[in-house]
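Meet today's protein:

…
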Amino acid sequence: MRVALLFVAACGVNQTPQPEPTPELPSCVPNRDGMITADELPIALGATIAYYAGANRTVNLAGTDGHFDLSQESPDDTVIALGPVQLATQWYADQFPAGQFVVDAGAGLDGIYHQDDRALWLDGTASQTDGSDKTLIRYADPIALLRFPLVDGLAYSTTAPLASATVAGLPFVGMDQIDVDVTAGERLDVPYVEFSPVLRVRTHVTRTPSTGTPVVGKRTTLFMFECFGEVARAESKQDEAAADFTTAVYLRRFALGAHQ
């Protein structure tokens, strides 16, 4: 079974370059018990999953009786491949001693993560290149993005101060807050395949500066399936008020058998 891990804080998308040779993939078989443990979210460094991706899509994230339908295709959908890569080869590696792997976060940014039995932790974000306009955000205490086991009804909030961050080459002092809630779903439809059961993970990220610049918020809805990780993602416009927003500025879905 092909497995890769893709997550949170993405605001766009780039394909993830992967090393040769093709890595050996961990074994994981879904038991469909309605929860996801750390063992059911294996990290497959160097592996990728193919997704259909597009912008400005109408979506129903509230679902109907536990059924979520994201199967509609669009002629301008593209196929992308994403997956985790090693931290050690990145320019910012020595800034994240607890980090284990990196996932492309879009818009020229990477998310730096580590995982244990308790959670998938976000250590910070960084630009993919080191230059005068670089971004480097390090959390003194990593943020638990996904707490294990992921189950229906789980909800939590984390606040992380940013004392000496750099954003687009400029110093930034402020605070990030991430609110997460999890809802069970009977089924998710994406093009040519159904996943059942799924977990819908809604994330609301709010960045507040210490002075000056206005507060900025972003919502993301993930659909998770055991052993696959993320099988669909919808991202809101900036400062979206509705938890179940109806227009996704970015939408991607698992692409069965698709090739670039």
User: Anything to note?
Assistant: The CA atoms of residues 60 and 246 lie 6 Å apart. The chain has one domain: 38-254.
